[in-house]
Amino acid sequence: MTDRLLIVGWDGADWEILDDLLARGCLPTVESMIRTGGRGNLDSTIPSHSWAAWTSFLTGMHPASHGVYDFVERHPTEPQRRVPVGSRSIKAATFLERLSDGGVEVRAANIPVTFPPFPVHGRLISGVAIPHGATFVHPPEWTAELQRRAPFPINGMEWGRFRDDPDALIAEVKRLVEERTASYRVLLEGEWDVAVCVYVAPDRLQHPLGNHLLPTHPDFGRLAATPMAQAIRDVFRELDDSLASLIDAAGPGTTAVLMSDHGFRPVVRLSNLSRLLEHLGFLAPARSAGATMTLRRSSLARAIAGTRLGHSIKRRVKAPTTVDWARTTAYQSVSGGGINVNLRGREPGGTVPASDYERVRESVRDALLAYRDADTGEQIVDRIRFREELPSGPFADLAPDLIASPTAQWSFAHTDAMSSSAEWPSATHRTRGVLVASGGRTEPGALGDRYIADLAATALEFCGMPSPGLDGRAISQISGAAGAVAERPAVGNGAGQGEGRVDRGGSGMSDEDSEVIAQHLRDLGYIE
User: Fold this and answer.
1) Which one, of 323, 384, 310, 380, lies nearest residue 351 by Cα?
2) In whole angstroms, what is the distance from residue 467 CA to residue 471 CA?
3) Residue 288: its pLDDT value, please?
4) 508/131 Cα distance (integer angstroms)
5) Are strands 338-341 and 330-334 parallel, antiparallel or unpaired?
6) Which of 173, 287, 351, 375 has the fewest CB neighbours in a 10 Å radius?
7) 2, 251 in Cβ contact below 8 A?
8) Which of 257, 239, 213 is nearest to 428 (CA)?
């Protein structure tokens, strides 16, 4: 009998969708886990996008304690330039590193924000956005064996490119689930104590095709019985089979956990938050902004961007800004509704003096909440949070000044119009995700409402290691009795854990790598 902890992530899995699939008999493995163990809810971060959420999963910290609020961050020497966030952007130790420093053998694969790969005591396959040709495995010498036996496919499923051929997207998703499962089974060979394997397939299907899966979507009634809906459900069957396969590979006695970083909800209307701020008089676009945004979204531009010529051009030509900073008082700063006041002394082109900060922030809040869509008469923004309402921490200054939450069935998106109907995408994130546990040390029964950072503390407690200073709390129904792992000799991994604060020294990515990752994020609809 083994005594291991296996965490399987289904990015974006939501109980509304899973419960419908369970009722249809599509998820026998999940059904068995619930019946013999327990289910609960896993609340995400605010904002509830994957980069902030998965980093909280990894560190057991709020974004204010790990410093990742967005898919991009300011370049250290060019403040007006934004570059993709990577593993070296994480300013706290991950539980994988903490376990490694305690001599615990770990396995990890395809967790977002783990590129470039970092040292662990075990094996790690980076995820999710990886430049072609880059080293994405630790230890690097294990790469040859992995790629020989079960090559790990990087990236893929960029749903923004498949609007004209959704069947091709579904086929690609199914293929990548199968190929990644084969890689994960190789990863799980040998001796280990804690493993994490993540599938991003649910997220990639649900954004564009959530109207086929979400019973509360207005179009679900006419779409749920279509061949396309059946094909999507077949992918979830494949995910369920893969879950069973990984539990089998982990061995009898394994404590198995299924979780998601956030959930999904229906969308029927879209709004471009930057265009809305412009309409309300807070943001002034640069004269070339419209042409720049249109070119960047064109299929020709995307094709060129992925070539050596495209990368060469980008290194030589600085793209024109889309904002006239001299005439802007507030702008969209973080994906998921984050807005910053263009504060003098903090922003590179700041115009708002500190004495006017509160007045401008309140004006933005009041104007957004009062605005009604011209086409539908509906309120677009349902709630505004000031940064003080978010969890505090040493990096709280990186949080946006305000976070706008859209009204039900609305979503913020990078559209050309200030508002429009939504067909592709048809769903977006909601804060509440899923949690299931069974086998091993699991205490059967409802798991209740948990927080995504709780899983890092749970993994540490499972291995008998303390977790001081974490924002998450261990889930005792999963971690069970403390083990004797803490008695093992520490091997260290060079991450310099100390009190849990980590300086990994910059992004670790070249300009070319950054642009490849940025294009992947654009094709996923995450950045503009």
Assistant:
1) 323
2) 10
3) 57
4) 12
5) antiparallel
6) 287
7) yes
8) 213
